[in-house]
Amino acid sequence: MRSTPNGRAEGPPSGAHPDDDLLLDLALGVMTRGRAADLFTHLAACPACEERFRHCAGEVERLRAAAAGALAGLPEMPVGIAARRVTTRGRWAWMLGSAAALAACLLLFVTVVRPAHEKAADTHLLHWLPDPGELVVTRTPGGAAADPALTEGLASYRLRDMRAAAAALGKTRVSGPMAAMAAVYYGSALAWSGEYRAAARELAGVNMEALPEPWRGETRWTLYVAFRECGEAARADSLLTLMEAGKGTVADRARELHAGH
Fold this sequence. Notes:
This protein is mainly alpha-helical and 261 residues long.
């Protein structure tokens, strides 16, 4: 049985359900790609384990957001975060509390690394989309996988494997509101992969007004970056002006960027 970088065995015996430590390793992206693929296959066939993983991935996203806030004074970069945690009766007890406790935790237990497949020079303006949570339905009422490509693509996005995410999300066959959300994550994955023109084409066809926040604002931002990077300056400037007129994090980001020019 293979081991993760933290020294634990990398997977459960064949046919067994993954324990909480394995799901956390999967969410943090510290498994080999082959073992991660094996676990995603299990999750696609096991609604209970998929729900546990979605909860775990959500906790990781909240930790990433908290870390990003604490590190706001540093140059922005995509981060993979390995955090100390303790397990109590199968549930996570995160070592976070007040802002001061978070800062101390970051100094002692957080390692910031740049994934090898990401190029900072090409993606410095991009921001990750939030975890989709319950907004994206990956199962039918009967419990079957609604679209395996969607499930695989979102799982790869959570692991910050943008090439794999783009490859899977480009094959989705969903309709209605789920089609818009799939397009949003597909466009983001394309942009993170440096395929800005393809990202612009994908995201320009999304009805932004139908998206809930924060996806609406973050999708507009991704489209702005895509327009800017593929030479569509007029369209990028127009979108930046639109975002500046709004409220919230993305509007503040747009005004800050404009003021810095």
